[in-house]
Amino acid sequence: MKFKEQTVSLATHYQExxxxxxxxxxxxxxxxxxxxxxxxxxxEFPKVVAFLNTTTKSLADLCKGNQRGTFVGFCGxxxxxxxxxxxxxxxxxxxxxxxxxxxQKLGTEFIVVxxxxxxxxxxxxxxxxxxxxxxxxxxxxxxxxxxLAMKLxxxxxxxxxxxxxxxxxxxxxxxxxxxxxxxKDERYKICSFLHTEYLNGLTTR
Length: 205
Hints:
N-(1-d-carboxylethyl)-l-norvaline Dehydrogenase, domain 2
C-alpha cells in the first residue's frame, strides 16, 4: 500500500463513507465516475481533501462548478496510484497549497498536470497498449516479444500486455474509449483485436 504511515479505512458504500468523513482528513474515491452525484457528499465536508478518480472524466466536468469541496483529480487505475510520483489535477489554483501540504503528510511526491481525461502517463500507456494490439493483429511480433522489447528498450517496468493485464482489459478499453471521444485522435481508436478481447472478458465476468 502506498501510504504506509497513515491510518487507512475502507468504505464500500457512500453511507459508510459519510460516517468516516466526519473523522478523516483525506479521501480517495475510485468509483466517483460511476456515481457522480456523490460529489455532493464531499461538499458537506469542505475541509476533507477529496481525491477523485478522474481518469475517464475531467475534474471540471465531474464537479460542474461545485466550489464548496476541496477536490483533486487522480488516476485510480491499478498500478498508477502506487507510483512514486502522483499525477494530479486541481479544481482551483488556490488548492495547490492544500495539495502540497496533504501530499507531504501522505509522504508522496506529486505533479500537477492539466485537467484532461487520461492525465499524462495513463494516456501514453493506453496508446502504447493499443499499438501493441495492432502489432500482434498484423502478425508483426508476438506478445512476449513486444513485452520484452519494451522493457529492454525503454526500461518500462512492464511490457504493454503485462501492463494491460495488471490494469485490466475492461479498464484499458474504457480509458481508450474516453480518450477517443474526448480527442477524436486516431491514436486512441480502439484496435479491433483489443475490442474483441474486451468483449470476451465481459462474458467471463
